[in-house]
Specification:
Blueprint (H helix, E strand, L loop, with lengths): L2 E7 L6 H11 L6 E6 L4 H12 L2 E8 L2 E7 L2
Parallel strand pairs: 1-2
Antiparallel strand pairs: 2-4, 3-4
Protein name: Sulfurtransferase TusA family protein
Pfam family, one: TusA
Organism: Metabacillus fastidiosus
């Protein structure tokens, strides 16, 4: 998977990871991938819901040392 852009949203609380993700996605073309790093525990639910409502695709998510990572393909 080729990542086009990485968004560092660590240390930000809701709703800022979603706000920053939306801005970053607007800079991408269809089918390009955004990688997001956040420490907000609510991000999994928030980003999953946002991806569905925006017509994007969550390719993968994982947690590593308290950092939640998401890979989203722009729809």
């Amino acid at each position: 998977m080729e990542v086009k852009k990485v968004l560092d949203a660590k240390g930000l609380a809701c709703p800022m990871p979603i706000v920053q993700t939306k801005r970053a996605m607007n800079e991408l073309e269809k089918d390009e991938v955004l990688e997001i790093h956040t420490t907000d525990k609510g991000s999994k639910n928030d980003l999953t819901a946002w991806v569905k409502s925006g017509g994007h695709q969550l390719l993968k998510d994982e947690e590593e040392n308290g950092v939640f990572k998401f890979w989203i393909k722009r729809g």
